[in-house]
Amino acid sequence: MIVGLSKTGSNARDVVAGIGRVAGENLTGQAGAVHNRELSAVPFKHHAEHRHHIPRPRYRVTNQPEYDAALRRRGSLTVWFTDAAIAAWRAEPRTTPGGQPHFSPLAITTALTMRMVFGLALRQTEGLIGSLVALLGLALAVPDHSTLSRRSKTLEVPPHRRLGAGPLHLLVDSTGLKLGGAGEWLVEKHGTSRRRSWRKLHIGIDGESGEIVVIELTKKESDDAARTAALLDQFTDPLASFTADSAYDQDRVYETVAERHPDAAVIVPPRATAVPGPSATTAPTQRDRHIQEIVAHGRMGWQKSSGFGPRSRQQSVDTNA
To answer: Which of 178, 196, 237, 312 has the fewest CB atoms found within 10 Å of its own CB?
Structure first.
């Protein structure tokens, strides 16, 4: 309250005292403190008397033993090595010219996974793996931090295992990623513009659960439709539908999906200048049927019948997030 006052001496003390008396009267004479706009220059909670004060909900634990056990399990750590993992820890003999790696991709993946889970540096990861191997009494060599750093650049990560079950409804889109750096501060300080590099992120989302299923990072010159095969090769589940925007309205997209999943539906809106193919009357393709549906019922009718509307909205929300 003193921030808005500029006088000194008795006048300032009188103003502060007057505000204090008003606050005291509000606290003692009413059920709740109500701000007086006329005697104070600070507009704090102008409509306080009209606000709906909702009490804070209180939750009471009714299953205390089970709740305590669940909290303890969060900190429980169980590590074991299967016989197959122990046998595959060392790399297989190399048949081509070059150096022989000592550790298999499984060993490098295990170490890097432990590093990501516990948020460790490479040297600390080496120490953690060595401790686990010693505690389990295994006769396994431990990859050093230099090997982990070098092998992580060329390591092929196994395909992601989807959490959901059943055929996959894949929503595909791409977005741009800007590579930042120290030059951002130079632009802010001196006002000069610098050319920045961009990368294109191709992403595939499960239309039912919103889970990210496939992902690939390419240069900005890469065509969206050209990465269809690379995205489809990242999962092994049966594909029910492939949904994307009009940038994927190309024959190679339909052909790539048909080669890997013949029964999958390709839901891609045709371009405004799209025309049916030469065999549309005798053996229409999926794209021909889309064009015929749009001609007969309009683009909005096609979106409702094909299910492109709701899935495209979810695709836009997930990609922008």
So the answer is: 178
Q: Which residues contact 175 (CB under 8 A, 6 or more apart)?
A: 200, 201, 203, 319, 320
Sequence-ordered alpha helix ranges (H) in the chain: 10-29, 64-74, 83-87, 105-118, 122-136, 145-151, 183-190, 228-232, 251-260, 286-306, 308-320
Q: Closest by alpha carbon to 292, among 300, 283, 280? A: 280
Is the pTM value of this prediction over 0.90?
no
pLDDT in tens, 176-209: 887 766 666 666 666 655 566 788 999 988 888 8
Q: Whose CA is closest to 233, among 209, 260, 252?
A: 260
Whose CA is closest to 195, among 175, 174, 179?
179
Place of tokens 């492939």: 242
The helix/strand/coil state of 120 is coil
Distance between CA 243 and CA 172 in Å, rounded? 6
Instruction: Kindly report the CATH number that applies to the domain delimited by 168-320.
Output: 3.30.420
What H or E segment, with its residue span, contains residue 219?
strand 212-219
The set of residues, in sequence order, having a beta carbon less than 8 Å from that of 220 and lying 6+ positions away, is 176, 197, 198, 199, 200
* Rg, Å, the chain Cα set: 32
Quote the distance between the C-alpha of residue 258 and its chain's center.
28
pLDDT in tens, 49-93: 666 677 777 888 888 889 999 988 888 888 889 999 999 999 888
